[in-house]
Specification:
By secondary structure, this protein is of the alpha/beta class. The chain folds into three domains: 280 residues, 2-enoyl-CoA Hydratase, Chain A, domain 1, CATH 3.90.226; 184 residues, NAD(P)-binding Rossmann-like Domain (Rossmann fold, 3-Layer(aba) Sandwich); 177 residues, N-(1-d-carboxylethyl)-l-norvaline Dehydrogenase, domain 2, CATH 1.10.1040. The chain has 31 helices and 20 strands. The strands form four sheets. It has an eight-stranded mixed beta sheet with strand order 13-12-11-14-15-16-17-18, with helices on both faces. A seven-stranded mixed beta sheet has the order 1-2-3-4-5-7-10, with helices on both faces. Helix 5 packs across helix 6, helix 6 packs parallel to helix 10 and helix 6 runs antiparallel to helix 11. It is globular. The two termini are 43 Å apart. The mean pLDDT is 95.
């Protein structure tokens, strides 16, 4: 044994070859500080051992190395710039020292080789992948760039164009695609990986493969003439500007860094990478995106833990109420392997539900993601029916009828009288109290809310709403089924609007008040989309949701929380609804919708909408972008804080993920609580107090005031 540590070891094989094996104590290998330190010690041991002809690098786990240990980033990045620069500089030069060993190195890549794992592979002279490999540099998804030499080595191995596409998108490759692009030198079956990599290493040591030339190429400037350089980097910059926009600095920094480093050797290029990494590590976008990653891990871990405790295995779903929503739920169940019965009282609705499923599958076939067999299997797994009796064998029923408590109550009672005693019953409601609906049932312990978001096949979130009588077994089974259906479950407690809609409607109320005070809805939409980063501004979002749907839900919220959510006099959305302007569903709302001469959808601000709003609003005036953002986001933030304080949601992290997955909250802001924390709690309190005169939705709770005064955090 040449070296033995907690995360890796180096031993001698036959004929003078050494093997460096990553095998951390946990389930995966990752580059935490301990592993980086051990790699440096192992490299020093190899360099001083004498008689080593070459080193084979591999993993003893199902994945090579999944990346850096992101849990260390929060404390690291809080350090002063100079200390972060020292850390990343010292770490990246550990990889340099390995790369500089005086004999060939070959990496055997299996499973995930991401981030630091990919950079370790690139530090070797050659790479062999197996057919389980997924290799890439996904740091951009954390608001960062590669920091251990990835921006230096990858462009010199596969060319700057390919490398920038890898890094700015963060997408990984399988072995075959990586081979085609030149990132690996061979792809073999998993059982042949070690043998093939060792054979390549021996060929290199015997001079049959020119490993020195490969290494020299990685340490030299990029081989681009002036015209090639200009074309390569201008194209990459344009692509990043179009796809990432101004809110995500990481991909822009990557292009700039690789371009500036293109004429430099490894050491000079690495210095630029280190500096760029530190700049990004200090951005709000990086803090937000790292926060999202951590919150996502928490949500996934919690979901898996709840699912493991499930005592009921759902093998047949039933969906009550077809149409677009019911069809979407049935499709999602069937496509993920859980057959679904789709029941309605109307044959036309059943046809619409099946059409929705077929349309989704058809689009998948057009994109090459679904084949004919998959389409047939999915549609065959959906059974349309007009009869309640077909529900008798269902393990779980998801009621998705009209959003009316009386209708839902009647339907739920009929379901309970039909299904087995141990069948689970759920309601896909967006606002109606689960405790209220449970009054219709004799066994409320097997009932909960299961709120899907439209379009079902695209929106990741399912809110699972626990009523006061809902059993833990019911929640566990519904969480497990939600995961099987490919969705992210977040469990919340019952209240009007639950979590997502409860925080959304104060945002809409802030928007309505702003219009009545003289704002132009197109100007508000522009600020909330272009400046704040929402995928849709509030007027456009109302049109997409359906103004009738929104008006109904706003009434439910006003009835449930009258002290803050009472309806505005002359609410612009109510004016639209009364004028039969329902949004996209009938082509007229705040905007008018149609198609141009080429058949492409059009959206234009509706003169009719202005005609409805202007007579009841103040004289039109221009509002500063910061005031527009404050007047919409403070009510949302306040209501989110109240949901956390009341125990509707368990943690700030879960609230952030719910808004990200359910509403499309801008990822570069990290979620509503991350947004508040980035602003600073004391600054948020001061800002809210500035607008407190506008009404209860702007008035903060004593809890957040106390937290700000005591310097506390929602993520402590």
């Amino acid at each position: 044994m040449i070296y033995s540590g907690d995360s890796l070891s180096v031993s001698m094989l036959d004929d003078g070859f050494a093997e460096l094996v990553f095998d951390a104590k946990g389930s995966v290998n990752k580059f935490d500080r301990q592993t980086v330190s051990e790699l440096d010690e192992a490299t020093a041991a190899l360099a001083s051992h004498g008689g080593v002809k070459g080193v084979l690098v591999r993993s003893n786990k199902g994945a090579f190395i999944v990346g850096a240990d992101i849990t260390e980033f929060t404390s690291l990045f809080a350090l002063p710039d100079e200390e972060v620069l020292t850390w990343v500089g010292n770490t990246s030069r550990v990889f340099d020292r390995f790369e500089d060993l005086p004999f060939p190195t070959v990496c055997a890549v299996n499973g995930f080789a991401l981030g630091g794992g990919c950079e370790m592979a690139l530090a070797c002279d050659m790479r062999v992948a197996d057919n389980t490999t997924r290799i890439g540099l996904p740091e951009v998804k954390l608001g960062l760039m590669p920091g251990f030499g990835g921006t230096v080595r990858l462009p010199r191995v596969i060319g700057s164009d390919n490398a920038l596409e890898w890094m700015t998108t963060g997408r990984d490759r399988n072995g075959e695609k990586a081979l085609k692009e030149g990132a690996v030198d061979a792809v073999v079956s998993a059982d042949k990986l070690r043998e093939a990599a060792l054979a390549m290493l021996k060929d290199a040591a015997e001079g049959k493969l020119n490993w020195e030339a490969r290494r020299a190429q990685k340490k030299a400037p990029l081989q681009l003439n002036k015209n090639e350089s200009m074309m390569s980097f201008s194209t990459a910059a344009a692509m990043v500007a179009a796809q990432a926009g101004k809110h995500y600095p990481a991909p822009h920094m990557m292009v700039e860094t690789v371009q500036k480093a293109s004429t430099l050797d490894r050491d000079g290029a690495l210095t630029l990478e280190n500096q760029g990494f530190v700049k990004l590590a200090k951005t709000d976008a990086a803090k937000a995106q790292i926060g999202i990653f951590m919150a996502d891990q928490l949500v996934k871990s919690k979901g898996k833990k709840q699912a493991k405790s499930a005592t009921k295995d759902v093998k047949l779903n039933a969906v009550l109420g077809a149409g677009i929503m019911g069809g979407g739920i049935a499709y999602q169940s069937a496509v993920k392997g859980i057959p679904a019965v789709m029941k309605d009282i109307n044959r036309d609705a059943l046809d619409l539900g099946l059409k929705e499923a077929a349309t989704i599958l058809g689009k998948g076939m057009q994109r090459g993601k679904v084949d004919a067999a998959k389409m047939a299997a999915t549609l065959n797994a959906i059974t349309p029916t007009l009869e309640y009796s077909t529900l008798k064998d269902a393990d779980m029923v998801i009621e998705a009828v009209v959003e009316n408590p009386k209708v839902k109550g009647i339907v739920l009672k009929e379901v309970e009288d039909t299904v087995a005693d141990d069948a689970i019953i759920c309601s896909n409601t967006s606002t109606i109290s689960i405790n209220q609906l449970a009054e219709s049932l004799e066994k409320p312990e097997r009932f909960c809310g299961m709120h899907f978001f439209n379009p079902v096949h695209k929106m990741p979130l399912v809110e699972i709403i626990r009523g006061k009588d809902t059993s833990d077994d019911t929640i566990a089974a519904v969480v497990a089924t939600t995961l099987k259906m490919g969705k992210t479950p977040i469990v919340v407690n019952d209240c009007p609007g639950f979590l997502v809609n409860r925080v959304l409607f104060p945002y809409f109320a802030g928007f309505g008040k702003l219009l009545l005070d003289g704002a132009d809805f197109t100007a508000v939409d522009k600020v909330m989309e272009k400046v704040f980063g929402w995928p849709m501004g509030p007027a456009y979002l109302m049109d997409v949701v359906g103004i009738d749907t929104g008006d109904h839900a706003a009434n439910v919220m006003a009835e449930g929380i009258p002290e803050r959510m009472a309806r505005l006099d002359n609410d612009p959305s109510t004016l639209m609804y009364k004028a039969d302007r329902l949004g996209q569903k009938n082509g007229k709302g705040f905007y008018n919708y149609g198609v141009d001469k080429r058949g492409k959808p059009t959206k234009t601000a509706a003169d009719e909408a202005y005609a409805l709003i202007n007579p009841v609003s103040a004289e039109r005036k221009e509002f500063d972008k910061d005031e527009i953002i404050a007047r919409l986001m403070i009510p949302m933030a306040n209501e989110a804080i109240r949901c956390l304080e009341e125990g509707i949601v368990d943690s700030a992290a879960e609230a952030d993920m719910a808004l990200l997955y359910g509403l499309g909250f801008p990822p570069f802001r990290g979620g509503i609580f991350r947004y508040i924390e980035t602003m600073g709690l004391a600054n948020f309190v001061a800002l809210a107090d500035k607008y407190a005169h506008l009404g209860p939705i702007y008035q903060i709770s004593d809890g957040v005031r106390d937290m700000a005064a005591n310097g506390k955090s929602y993520f402590a």
